[in-house]
Fold this sequence. Notes:
Blueprint: H1 3-22, H2 32-40, H3 59-70, H4 82-85, H5 132-141, H6 150-158, H7 161-170, H8 180-191, H9 200-205, H10 214-225, E1 242-244, H11 264-267, E2 275-277, H12 299-311, H13 317-328
Antiparallel strand pairs: 1-2
Bound molecules: heme C (2 copies).
Amino acid sequence: MNRVLRTFAITLAAVVTASLLFTPMVVAQDDPLIARAQALFEPIPTTGYAELDDNPYTEAKSELGRMLWFDPRLSASWAISCNSCHNLGTGGVDLQSKSIGHDWQRGGRNSPTMLNAVYNLAQFWDGRAADLEEQAMGPVQDSLEMNNTPENAVATLKSMPGYVEAFEAAFPGEADPVTFENMAKAIEVFEATLLTPNAPFDLYMKGDADAINAEEREGFELFVNKGCVSCHMGINIGGTGYFPFGVIERPDAFILPEDDLGRYQVTNVEADKYAFKSPSLRNIELTPPYFHSGSIWSLEDAVRIMGDAQLGATLTDDDVVKITAFLRTLTGDQPVVEFPILPEITESTPLPTGMTMP
Length: 358
Ligand code: HEC
Ligand code: HEC
């Protein structure tokens, strides 16, 4: 071994030793399953927010994002806010099969949770928005959701001095800070604070062998050994890729409607027909009904359907009960969000339009 190589080898050994010594995770000697959990998943950080690459966290941005999140005046009708369909009091969803949007219209898909959404590889069931910033511009303009235009949304925000000040504080030094893009950036930063740390399973992963009970532990083993983990892994226990719904057996049209081609609508690639983003299973017990069709209300039924459709392994009733028990250990501390007092309108605020009585 030449000197350079030897120095390298010694350095490497030192680094490995150091990383073993200082590794923050504790592997409980009596529970080898913890090491397995650590290799497959990651706990949600307890830092209060996730760092975004191109949109650094500031308190001013997060506060502005919180105001925008709850403000129905971003919708044409002043009746609908982001929180209408992603209610932070109910796990970040609306508990509707399909959300009710502008003028009482129902959308085409079930509303996904906002909790931990920052960790998904892309946004929407079909991944058509790359990140939360791009995503946030969608619903404001969607005719089935908030039915607004960027121009009208910006005019509305500019008409209220309270908002102009909040945008100036969030985007200091910008000549014209009240823009549609900055609105989306502030919402993205706020959404990156919607994390749910300290789920029992996360505590287990961090080395607390007693954080989950024997049944939940068996459920976790089944989840891994039956193959659920091949599509629901990583920090969000899902949200890492697109997979056809019905790999083995196509569910019936009530669960998998024929007219929603999923990821194919974004890529036009044949193999993506009926493929959807594998959803995060965190807080899953709080967010029925399940699937992009919002067709199934019972978590146990959803697990059974996954076994048939994705694994071709019929799960016994006992397996289903145990896997479901494990899934319930994925519920973390819900973010405590103070409801903002919103700026008052002025004479120049464009008035609401287009919400007829049913
Ligand atoms: C009328 C109901 C409705 C409103 C209002 C609404 N959303 Fe949504 N949202 C949905 C539905 C339904 C989807 C899934 C659509 C799809 O995948 O095609 C979704 C998807 C999302 C996603 C993707 C999550 C994921 O895991 O893929 C994010 C993020 C999001 N919405 C944020 C927002 C924000 C921010 C606002 C306010 C500016 C908002 N939504 C307003 C219903 C709504
Ligand atoms: C081949 C990939 C794959 C496998 C294996 C798989 N899933 Fe899924 N899972 C998905 C996809 C994709 C969806 C979204 C389906 C849809 O709504 O279109 C999903 C949806 C779900 C949902 C509903 C989530 C929601 O928010 O509506 C649950 C619960 C779930 N899976 C649990 C499981 C369990 C438990 C197993 C093992 C028995 C499993 N999955 C195996 C890919 C997979």
